[in-house]
Design goal:
- The complex is a heterodimer of chains A (115) and B (115).
- Chain A has 115 residues and is an all-beta fold.
- Chain A has no helices and eleven strands.
- In chain A, strands 2, 4, 5, 6, 9, 10 and 11 form a seven-stranded mixed β-sheet that branches. In chain A, strands 1-3-8-7 form a four-stranded antiparallel β-sheet, with no helix packed on it.
- In chain A, a hairpin with a 2-residue loop joins strand 5 and strand 6.
- Chain A is globular.
- The termini of chain A are far apart.
- Chain B is built from no helices and eleven strands.
- In chain B, strands 2, 4, 5, 9, 10 and 11 form a six-stranded mixed β-sheet that branches.
- The chains are: A mainly beta (115), B mainly beta (115).
- At the A-B interface, strand 4, strand 5 and strand 10 of A face strand 4, strand 5 and strand 10 of B.
């Protein structure tokens, strides 16, 4: 069983550049979540997919943030025109909907540093 | 929206002693309360969870209690070991395991086990 994987694990970019992160959920998990975690804080929910449908995106931090899950499997999170305040850990989680509710399993995260 | 408060921010205990971390939540509609352990450079790992129809749940050295009336839940770790040292996060959600609301996390507790 492979867990949630994220790529890259680390990304350094210059202010104003675009970055894209990838998340591969646990196979057959139909729900996928993106979170942001800044230093000393808990993860902050950003967006959620059920299969390929993005059912919640109002928590995305600005219109510079967008996410896709085109075939209901892997997902990408893009940040356009990065700012220094975007520096954080970006976490992906997946879960399988079930009668008893579901558990979210997190990946190792992508650490972004904007210079 | 939901607000989760977590205390203490740092907890230092002697190896073998017990540790207790407390959280309160604001939304009475929340019905799922997981606890995650995060080690340095890694994503959060679920250690135990509880749903609102249960008052207490135990798994070996770890237990969680829930008081719905007071909107309060706690993590109890007995017979602490050095490998228990990590940051622990509580979270809450109104949907079974997450759904469109995602998880709302506390700010975390840095648990230090003194040898």
């Amino acid at each position: 069983d492979t867990g949630v994987s994220q790529d890259p694990r680390h990304k350094i970019t210059k202010r104003g550049q675009n970055v894209t992160f990838r998340c591969d959920p646990i196979s057959e998990h139909n729900r996928l979540y993106w979170y942001r975690q800044t230093l000393g804080q808990g993860p902050e929910f950003l967006t959620y997919f059920q299969n390929e449908a993005q059912l919640e995106k109002s928590r995305l931090l600005s219109d510079r943030f967008s996410a896709e899950r085109p075939k209901g499997s892997f997902s990408t999170l893009e940040i356009q025109r990065t700012e220094q305040g975007d520096s954080a850990m970006y976490l992906c989680a997946s879960s399988l909907e079930g009668l008893e509710g579901e558990t979210q399993y997190f990946g190792p995260g992508t650490r972004l540093l904007v210079l | 929206g939901e607000n989760v408060e977590q205390h203490p921010s740092t907890l230092s205990v002697q190896e073998g002693d017990s540790a207790v971390i407390k959280c309160t939540y604001s939304d009475s509609a929340s019905n799922y309360f997981p606890w995650y352990k995060q080690e340095l450079g890694k994503g959060p790992q679920l250690i135990i969870d509880i749903r609102s129809n249960v008052g207490e749940k135990k798994d070996q050295r770890i237990a969680v209690t829930l008081n719905k009336t007071a909107k309060h839940f706690s993590l109890h770790i007995t017979e602490t070991q050095p490998e228990d040292s990590a940051v622990y996060f509580c979270a809450a959600s109104k949907r079974r395991g997450g759904g469109a609301d995602g998880l709302t996390f506390g700010k975390g507790t840095h648990l230090i086990i003194q040898p």
